[in-house]
Amino acid sequence: MHPTDPHKVQTTATERTNIYFPDLGDFDTAGAVQINYIKTLPHDLALVTAGTLGYYRGLGAMSRAVGAGDLLAAAEYVHADGPWTGPDNYNKGNLVLSYSQGNIDNGFSFTGMYMNDAFHATNQIPLRAVREGLICLYCPFDPTDGGSSERYSFSGKYAATTDAGQLFANAYLIGYQLQLFNNFDGFVTFPPPIGDQFMQQDRRKIYGGNISYMIPSNLFGFDAKNTFGFQTRTDDIHIDLAETTGRVVRFTERDDHVIEASAGVYIENRVQWADKFRTMTGLREDLYYGSDESTLQANSGTITQAITSPKGNLIFGPWQNTEHYLSVGQGFHSNDLRGTLTNVDALATEINFQQGNPTIVTQGKTPLLTKATGYEVGVRAEPLPDLKLEGAVFVLNLNSEATFSGDEAVTTPGRPSQRKGIELTASYKPYPWLRLDGDFAATHARFANGDDGAADTEPGHPGNYIPGAANMIATASATVEKFGPWFGALRFRYFGRRPLIEDNSVSSKPTTLVDLRIGYKISEQARLWLDILNLFNNTGAHQIDYFYPSQLASETTPAYDIHFKPVEPISARFTLSITF
Description:
CATH architecture of the domain at 385-580: Beta Barrel
Shape: globular
CATH superfamily of the domain at 385-580: TonB-dependent receptor, beta-barrel domain
CATH class of the domain at 385-580: Mainly Beta
């Protein structure tokens, strides 16, 4: 991430804590971002970027009036190597084509997108290997790690607004494939020269749609709006997991054909009870169906589950441009369907069979849907015309905390958890050419029950800390716009320490990064700017940290250690944009 690009095809992004709103369900427990793309450009755009660490980018976009609507097309190419001794050689291409008529309240649009990329990957490395000089800071654990992905989508939106109500509808088709080769722990399971690299391959089609209708009404003499909605999505997935060496498959661990389908209905009611008081309540019902045809019959099957999610919001004000709110709601997220049907640990069983041991290793099942309950009290204020403030105190309870295993690259549901904390946001424009923004969040994240020997707790390290949960996150930026021909931005980001194990005996260091942009408006059509990323060259900071056992080629037994990926060193990028 870096300071805001002054030329974007993407124009609006809305963030909400959707556990309190009924129109979004799965994976919107803590928040969601809704992105809308512009339909027309005031001018055609060409942009080129060249930078250090092998970074190049080209972007072109244009729009034309066609019939009663507008046609927009955009294309992008990105290449990046990074600081790694084995360059990422990351190559990505993007295409966007859309046709639209009307506006957001009355109109329609059709959009097609395509993306393709391929890359090498320098994943996390053991801290001890760096300290002992066995691996350099930017060296790979396994130089053959990497992958590729491809994605295409077709979508359509329709909106119609009359005095009787407002209709919104959309439908989409997505095709996606991903292939990854990763070796996170070296030689724990298989000795040198074989190694523990594995391949994940995901090929899927996604079909879905949403429709909602809002009806203005009157409730006990008060203005009200009732919205009824229906949403559906189906994922048709072929997913493979294989053990590899140097990207050559040795044996297939799992080969699954998964169908996961869901349908959700909801109702939302908004009532303006008084000039300074309104409510928003809602109820959502979701039904999930899943089936898995696995290479092991014991791991095949079907499952159906439903979940109900009530929502409620009380909003008071505004008084002197200050509004207060109280929110309570329930939501959920779904888990890997294979885990809900799995009875046999495929890898452990395969290893037993290869060693002449016919023992089948069983595996516990995970829930398909995990419920979340949230509470939030907040305030939104605009005490001055150019000053906006927001603050909230929240509690979020999860029935099962999903934790990531760094050596296996899987997410496993575990014990119940609770997060409580505060969030603060401020935006101030003291001068027409200067905007100051800041965000701060402090969170106390713990497993909600005592250590009970759960599978997510490392042997000998009981505790209630949630691995990877940062205690503090903060961002701040100063953006200069139209200061004569000059523009620019300075951005600060801070990620606080994260416990890496449940008893907090091992933790990450905080990460602090600063980015800078300086730009010059050459003419009405041309701009030139310089981005400096990681301005103070904080090479001691880490992008990620995990704690788990790994084994180097020179070692005879696995050892627990911090595994990390360093942030990239200071780099510079020059960009020239031209409109015509």
